Every structure is written in C-alpha cells, then in structure tokens.
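Office hours follow-up: a student asked to see two folded examples consecutively, so here they are.
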Amino acid sequence: MDLSAQDIEARVLPHYRGLDGATVAPLGAGLINRTYLVKRADQRFVLQRLNPIFPPAINGNIDAVTRRLAEQDMVTPRLVPTRRGHLALDLGEGEGLWRLQTHV
C-alpha cells in the first residue's frame, strides 16, 4: 500500500525529531524503494519506504559505511535515528519499513 504525502506526514514524520510542519513530496522514480523529499524550513531530508526484500538490519550496514566515510571527511548521506534511537521505522504489515537520511 502506498501512503499519500499527507499520510506520511501524519504517520511517519512524528517518529522523528524536528520535523513538525515538514512537507513530503515524491523524489525521483525509484525502481526499488519509494523515495520522498522531506522539507522543513531550510532543512531537506530523503525518506525511503524500503522494499520488503531488505531486512531492517541493512540499515546497520549503511550506518557503518557512512559513519566510516564521514570519519574520512567525505560527504555522505547519514541515517537519522527515530525518536527511540532506531535506524529505521517499522510501521508493520501494509505500511512498511522507513528510513530517513540527510540530503546531500
């Protein structure tokens, strides 16, 4: 099930700090993950609803790689943890697994 931008704003964004009043719009035409641009004031993020072929643990791998790249002074998107400190948000059957990243 694809969620509308309004549904994403209401169901996904509240799980992240500092996104009150943010807007959501489709970003590109991803073939694997649904991808959205999240904007609030002068901040931009990339939000993805992950294809079910990816286990939640994939986000730990992404975090490890991007953390290492950042340590080497490379610009890289970074995962933004949920309010509970998780690298992804699992809304369950039908609404999926979501991750938020900084926009580069």
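And the second, which I mentioned at the end of office hours:
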Amino acid sequence: MSIRSTQRLAEAGLEPSVGRVGDSYDNALAETINGLYKAELIHRQSWKNREAVELATLTWVDWFNHRRLFEPIGHRPPAEAEAAYYEQTTESAMAA
C-alpha cells in the first residue's frame, strides 16, 4: 500500500509529507496532542465504560479547539486562529 501511495503521489507531481526513515518530525505534532490528551483527560480518572471515554473525548476536543488559549498563536483558540488564517488567505488571493 505504501509503495502504491508513493507512486500515485509521484504521478500527480506531489511529494509525500514524510521524512527519512526514523525521523520523528512528521509525527511530533500528533504525539504532542496525544500526550496532552492522555495527561489532561485519560489518566486523571477511572472510566466506567467506553462510552464515557468517548463522550469525554468529544468534550475535550471541543474545548481544546474552541476555548483553550494558546500563547504561540496570540492567546487565541486554535479554531479562531485557523479561521483568521483562511480569511487572510482568501483576502490575499482575491487581492491578487
């Protein structure tokens, strides 16, 4: 599957978003989010069942994206920063 995917990307003139074998750069963001999720939610309590974990996860993701303030992006929630980015990108494209 990996070889076929790489070939298809090459046919389309695209390069895969992966580094050399053993590089952790591509997975760093995902691992950071997973670590925060586990530390802030999963490991802080015992869970009655899978449904409780699923509901808590949805609540945490909503909070993480829409209410949690991040210093590196101007003390704004990620969803707000993303919306501003796409608005600026659209405005720049329209001006060009």
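Two things to take away from it. The mean pLDDT is 85. Helices lie at 2-11, 28-40, 50-66, 78-95.
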